Backbone:
């Protein structure tokens, strides 16, 4: 397991306290660190023995001090949190640490993790899709769902005819969608696979029709290289792959060759088997490691890192409890330094929380989840069926999250 790092707010004692809880640090250490909040705190997990020896040997300064040359390392409880620790220091100290890491090949994964977390201190680089630029960190963007399938859980069959699907996509664009996600294969739990020929027959007329009638960037929801290649040639500019480049080894190469963007999602198993495989020791950590590996797979194939997004895969091989924990800790995905896409719209765990409501009656629950992931987790994109309503919810959530004078919104 490669090391992972999470940057914490420099002036947030609450965030540090949460990190201390995860690391199992004693009260004496907590108090000394809380009185000396440096510019940057980085929570590390998945450290190797080499990483641990290197970090412990950086200097001999007492726990309560931060060395002038490099960040100070406080190891976690070796029994409760093996392979973890907290680095505290100024940005220039972290840069000196990276120089030192670069002298030892065994520390390359650690250096990579620290580089990502320093890069992620601000918003990811803007993404140009077609004629539009998506600037991350300004607001939560909306991806509208265009299902061209007879068996999707939410609206199966309603837009199976190409003309109907194109009209629906146009309506979502008018409602304010920033992206349109066209899919020809249902990925609901238990869904059987669809052939590439059938998938292409469903989506190509829709992609072409939407390209002619709207300037909203088009995403193709597929895990097949041949389908992605044809859809990109027809006008799509982003591949939304539920398999995180695991199902088809050629898909990453298609994305790289065409210059498209790609969203890699986490899934356990396949749509047919995923809910039987929803077993994790630590769902957040395992999803992070999996997504990190998917991103590296894409980069190795030639996809620029700033053309990638990540998705924790809510509902894909996860229980309701797993979904809620991932949403609660969505900010942890920030350590990957990439835009985060989240899809909760009309999903079954929302129906359960709302008393067993069917997909057609889950709008209110969807709005609650969308607002929460935007305001609390800082999601960059939400994938939804009800664009207009979600835009309204996001307008409020984003204002609360980003306003420096949030108290003025409530007359405080």
Residues:
């Amino acid at each position: 397991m490669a090391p992972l790092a999470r940057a914490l707010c420099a002036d947030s004692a609450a965030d540090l306290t949460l990190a201390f809880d995860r690391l199992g640090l004693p009260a004496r250490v907590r108090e000394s660190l809380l009185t000396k909040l440096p510019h940057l705190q980085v929570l590390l997990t998945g450290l190797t023995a080499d990483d641990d020896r290197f970090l412990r040997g950086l200097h001999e300064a007492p726990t309560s001090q931060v060395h002038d040359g490099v960040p100070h390392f406080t190891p976690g409880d070796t029994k409760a949190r093996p392979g973890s620790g907290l680095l505290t220091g100024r940005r220039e100290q972290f840069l000196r640490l990276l120089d030192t890491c670069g002298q030892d090949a065994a520390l390359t994964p650690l250096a990579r993790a620290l580089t990502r977390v320093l890069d992620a201190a601000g918003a990811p680089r803007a993404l140009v899709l077609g004629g539009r630029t998506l600037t991350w960190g300004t607001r939560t963007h909306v991806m509208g769902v265009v299902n061209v399938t007879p068996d999707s859980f939410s609206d199966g069959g309603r837009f199976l005819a190409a003309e109907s699907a194109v009209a629906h996509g146009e309506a979502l664009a008018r409602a304010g969608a920033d992206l349109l996600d066209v899919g020809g294969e249902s990925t609901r739990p238990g869904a059987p696979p669809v052939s590439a020929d059938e998938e292409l027959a469903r989506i190509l007329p829709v992609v072409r029709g939407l390209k002619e009638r709207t300037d909203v960037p088009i995403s193709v929801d597929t895990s097949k290289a041949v389908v992605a290649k044809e859809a990109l040639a027809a006008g799509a500019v982003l591949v939304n792959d539920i398999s995180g480049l695991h199902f088809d080894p050629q898909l990453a190469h298609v994305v790289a060759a065409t210059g498209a963007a790609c969203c890699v999602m986490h899934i356990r198993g396949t749509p047919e088997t995923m809910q039987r495989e929803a077993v994790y020791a630590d769902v957040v950590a395992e999803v992070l490691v999996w997504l990190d590996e998917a991103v590296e797979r894409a980069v190795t194939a030639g996809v620029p890192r700033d053309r990638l997004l990540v998705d924790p895969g809510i509902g894909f091989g996860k229980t309701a409890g797993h979904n809620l924990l991932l949403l609660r800790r969505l900010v942890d995905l920030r350590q990957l330094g990439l835009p985060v896409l989240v899809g909760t719209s009309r999903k079954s765990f929302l129906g359960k929380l709302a008393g067993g409501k069917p997909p057609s009656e889950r709008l209110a629950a969807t709005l609650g989840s969308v607002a929460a992931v935007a305001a609390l987790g800082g999601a960059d994109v939400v994938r939804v069926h009800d664009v207009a309503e979600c835009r309204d919810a996001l307008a409020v959530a984003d204002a609360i999250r980003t306003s420096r004078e949030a108290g003025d919104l409530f007359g405080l």
